[in-house]
Specification:
The chain contains three helices and nine strands, in the order E-E-E-H-E-E-E-E-E-E-H-H. It has 154 residues and is α+β, with helices and mostly antiparallel strands. The protein is globular. The longest helix has 13 residues.
Length: 154
């Protein structure tokens, strides 16, 4: 069965228009990668969990902050790996200076037998639409494109 993820795409009003909050994955594999390496804050939905609640939980785990307000559901997006991502758009201008992400453990260096802990997210930033589209994982770009279109209509 294909995995189901849920996430929150936060945006704020910037000088030149909307800016979108993306997160950069932590750990040694993603170090130094930028183009198509960023993501919306998201993660797997637990069995029986409400998708919006899962999205809000993942946002809090990855950023150490919660968001409240009117969540706008965006169209589900299917990635090339078969995962379905459900996302919600919300206006939120967050202070990102004290990012607190949960940790994950992996063997590092490979085949060393040592387990190391890394933050799931090592950076979070707001980007203008063009930059956000360039940095965002290709499979998540339809989510951002819909958000940009909806905000242009408002």
């Amino acid at each position: 069965m294909a995995e189901v993820s849920a996430g929150v795409l936060a945006w704020r009003r910037g000088v030149g228009g909307p800016e979108f909050l993306l997160v950069h994955p932590g750990g040694p594999f993603w170090r130094g990668k930028d183009e198509a390496a960023w993501s919306i804050p998201k993660g797997l939905v637990e069995p029986g969990e409400d998708r919006l609640e899962g999205a809000r939980r993942e946002f809090a785990e990855e950023l150490g902050q919660t968001v409240h307000g009117d969540f706008v559901e965006l169209a589900a997006c299917r990635t090339s790996s078969g995962k379905t991502i459900h996302a919600w758009l919300i206006e939120a201008d967050l202070d990102l200076t004290h990012l607190r992400s949960n940790l994950f453990r992996m063997e590092w260096p490979p085949r060393s037998g040592r387990l190391e802990s890394f933050p799931e997210v090592d950076r979070a930033e707001y980007f203008d639409p063009e930059t956000a589209l360039w940095r965002l994982h290709k499979g998540q770009r339809p989510i951002l494109a819909e958000a940009i279109a909806r905000l242009a209509e408002a």
